[in-house]
Structures are given as C-alpha cells and as structure tokens.
Design a protein that fits this description.
The protein is about 20% helix and about 15% strand. With about 300 residues, the chain is α/β, with parallel strands linked by helices. A five-stranded parallel β-sheet has the order 1-2-4-7-9. The longest helix has 18 residues. Pfam families: LRR_1 (PF00560).
Amino acid sequence: VEISLVSSKLSGTIPEEIKHLRKLEVLDLTGNSIEGPIPDLSELKNLEALLLHDNSIIGVVPSSICALRQHSLIDFKADCYTDKPEVTCSCCNNCGYIGTKGASSATGAGQTFEEETVREQAIVKVLRQHFSNREPIEEAQHFVVHTDPIQLDANDPKLIQRYVMAVIYFTMGGERWSIDKPWVEGMSDAEDECSFDGVACDGAGNVVGLALDMMNLSGTLPSEISALKSIKAIDMSKNQISGKIPDELGELEHLELLILHGNDIEGVVPESICEKRDAAELVVLWVDCSPKNPKVTCSCCTHC
C-alpha cells in the first residue's frame, strides 16, 4: 500500500507498470534524479499521496491524475513552483521548491517531511469534510499548513476559523486592502486572528464581527464565511465586491447585521437570508436595492 523511496538515488523514468499496484495508497519518490514525464496512473483509485517533487521530471501532469484529486488523491506535489516550472500542474495542492534534493521545501519547524505530509493530509481531509468535499482554496490551505506561524493541527477547534480568515484574505484581494498590517502575508509573529484589523472576537476567541467597510475589498463573497458560526455582524460595504450573495450565509444562526451596499454585487438576495429577516433574527440587511437603480433584487431588506 506504500512505496517510500525518498532520497534513494533513483534515476530513469517512472515505469507505467506502477499503475497495476491498485491497492497503492502512498507513492513518495521525493528527492531523486527521476526524469521524463509522469505516466498515466489513473488506475490507482486508492492513491492518497503522490509526492514527486525535487526530481528532474518534466511535462504536463496527465488530466487523468488530476481527476483523482476529486476522489482519493489528497496530497499531490510536483516541481511546479517557479515561474518556469519543470512540471505544468493545474491540480497540485503543493509545488516543491526545485534544487534541494531530499529536503522538503515547506515543513514546519522541527518536523520531518513525513510528519508534515501526514499533518497536511489530515488537514486537507478535515477541510474537505467540513466544506462538503469542495477542494480547499489553494492559497488558504498553504497558509494553514505551511506558512502560518501558529501551525494548527487537524484536530484543533480553531483550524476552520483560521482557514476561513485566510480564504477571505486571499479570495478578496487582501494584498491590496487598505489596512495597516496584512492579515496573513508576511506575518512574523504568531498572531491570533482576533488581532487582525477589522475583526472582533468574543471571550472564547470566536470571530463575532467583520468590519471591513471601505477597505478596498474585491472578488466575490466566499461561501466559506458560513463556517464562522458565532458571527453576528458583517459589514463589507463600500468596496469593489462583485458576484452574488452566497446562499450559505443564511446558515449563520447568530447573524444580526449584514451590510453589503456600495459594491458591485448583483442578483437576488437568497431566500435563506430573507427567512432570517422573517424570523426577526437578522436585524439589519442593507444591499444596493434602490428602486431607481437596483443592482440587487431584495424583498426583505431593511435598507436599500
């Protein structure tokens, strides 16, 4: 079920015959001198980890392998890191740094490569399960697994919250926000998300408010916000947010204020959110629904 030949001075190409090892779960050939393209391994339906970085492999990852990423394959690494990568990969969850044979490019402090791989697999599994088997946002996953100074484990109750904050940052143009200090990029200290600009938390460290108005946010509202189960107020007004309001925001049981006007949001306010207004749970709902020039159709808003 496992082949682990890290830094074993392997050369040549990966033999196509490996595809007949149908019970194989882990194939780790990191840190060798393997050449040539990656063969079709689509018959390995139980494969969970395919680790091929720090080699001389070239070419495009077969689409049949990328299809495995939607099923069993959790961890897939190849040399696709640089601007001119040796391997072109549209589905790798991590790209190894080229040129340091046998070394992992992104292991946490004090962790071996094998320990880091197990930790990443566990975190990805938790994220997939929590978000209905959707693929994690790559930049946010890389943050919680590799670059976050706090280095949470898969069983940490704050992992999902930490990941969601990273999703908001990366999908909504965080590097261009009008804030004094970026949320996650360039973080030198182990900062709790409750110290981030525009974030309010309760005494237990749960995010209860996002005050991100006039912060130069862009992109679309990520549905992952629905995982912030304690949140009461979201103000993202007067930004450059586009797209539609996710139906999943209606799952926020404690949400009292949702303020989104002054953006480029369009479409119809989801029925799940209007139901919260009807139940008198959502006190303020403000979008661009002015009768003269409505961007958003809303039958339950308190303000337009």
